[in-house]
Amino acid sequence: MQIIKSLFISFMVMIPFLKTHASDFKDSASIGLNTYSDTGDVQVYSPTFSLMKALSKNFLIGFKMRVDAIAAASIRNGGNPIVTDAVAGASSKENTFDEMRYAPTFLMSYQDGESTYSGGIYYSTENDYEGMAFFANYVRQFNEQNTAIGIGISQSSDEWKPVFDRNLPRNDRKEKKIDISVNQLLTPTASIQFVYSNMYSEGFLSSPYHYVLQDVFAKFENYPEKRTGHAFAVKGVNLLNDANSMSYSYRYYMDDWDITSHTLNIEWLQDFNDKITSGLRARYYTQTGSNFAKDIGTYEKTDLYFAADYRMSAFDSYDVGIPLIYRPSPTSDYKVTASIDFYQTSDNAYIQNWYGNSNIQAIYTTLKVDYEF
C-alpha cells in the first residue's frame, strides 16, 4: 500500500547538510536493512543496496536498490484491519508478506571547482502502484568554501492500479518539489543551513482502499485533486569539543488544505573511543487538521470530501532514538551505522476508528555497512 510505504519512508529520510568543502569522489558500496513494526499491525522489512563508481575524481555514477516487504492486516482486508472490508472486497493473501515494493535509483554527480551537479531517475513498482521520478541538484560554493547555495528539483508521475475493480476519479498522481538552500560555516566548529521547499501535488491523492463507514452509508476516502505546500527549515551543527557534537533542526510547513505543522529535531553524538560513536536523538511533531476532515461519525452522505487517514486530522508525535557508528580504525574503509527508534502519536479518534488503538506506537531500526575501495 502506497500510504503505508509513505509512512515508513517518512521516518527514514532526512535532508543532509550540504558539504562545505570539495572532495574527490571514491568508489563505494553499502548494504543495509531497515525494519518497522507498529501497534497497527504493520511490519516492514527493507533491505537496501548501493554501488557508487567514480569514473574520475570529478564524475561519479551510482545505483541504489530498495525492497520493501510489507505485512499488514489493512492490506489483507483491503481496509480496516479490525473489520473485514465489505466495501473493497479485497481478499486475504496466503504469502508471508502482503505486499512487495521494488525501488531502484540511478544517479550521477559531477563536480567542477566550486560547483557540483547531480541528478538521477527513480522507479518504484508494487502490485497496485507504479511510480517514476527524476531529480536534479546544483550546489555552488564560494566565500573560500564557507558558503554554499543549492537548488534541487524533483518531478514524479505515478499511477494507481487497485487490486480490485474500482473506477477511480483519476488513477494518476503527479508531484513536484523545489528546494532552495543556503549553508553557512559560522565558525570552524559550527554551521547553519536554511531551506525553503515548495511542493505541488495533483491527481488522486487519497487511498483507493480507505473508506468512511457510518451507520447509514459507506464512502471511499476522497481528497481534493490539488495540493500546494510550503516549508521553511533551519538546521545547525555544532562541534562542542573533540568528542561531542550537537545537531538540531526546526521545520515549519503549511499548505492550502489548511494543514500546518512544526517539527523539532535534536541529536547529540559522542566519540566514546576511536571506534565507537553513539548518542541520543529526539523529535517532536505537531500538526493541525485539514479543512475537510470532520469529527469521526459526523460525515454526511452529501459531503464532497471524506477522510479516514489520521494524517488528515490534528495530532502530535514523539520520537526517541539511539544512533551508533562503528569504524574498526580511524583509517578503515569500513563503517557500520545502526540505530533504533521508538515512535508514538498522541491519542487520536481517527487512529482509534481505523486501527482499534487510541494511538500508534512503533519501533524502527536501521543497519548499514559502508565500504570504500
Question: In a nutshell, what does this entry contain?
Answer:
The protein has 373 residues and is mainly beta.
Q: Can you describe what's shown?
A:
The protein is mainly beta and 373 residues long. It has a single domain, classed as Beta Barrel (Porin). The chain contains 3 helices and 18 strands. Strands 1-2-3-4-5-6-7-8-9-12-13-14-15-16-17-18 form a 16-stranded antiparallel beta barrel. It has a two-stranded antiparallel ribbon with strand order 10-11. It is globular and about 65 Å long.
What key attributes describe this structure?
single chain, 373 residues, mainly beta, Porin, 16-stranded antiparallel β-barrel, two-stranded antiparallel ribbon, 3 helices, 57% strand, globular, disordered N terminus
Structural class: mainly beta
Order of helices and strands: HEEEHEEEEEEEEEEEEEEHE
Show unreliable segments: 1-22, 81-94
Indicate the percent of residues in helices. under 10%
Largest sheet: 16 strands, antiparallel, barrel
Shape-level CATH architecture: Beta Barrel
Gap between N and C termini, in Å?
38 Å
Which helices and strands appear, and what pairs or packs with what?
Elements: H1 2-12, E1 28-38, E2 42-54, E3 59-72, H2 73-76, E4 99-112, E5 115-126, E6 129-142, E7 147-160, E8 172-187, E9 190-203, E10 211-213, E11 218-220, E12 226-239, E13 244-255, E14 260-271, E15 276-287, E16 315-326, E17 334-345, H3 349-355, E18 361-372
Antiparallel strand pairs: 1-2, 1-18, 2-3, 3-4, 4-5, 5-6, 6-7, 7-8, 8-9, 9-12, 10-11, 12-13, 13-14, 14-15, 15-16, 16-17, 17-18
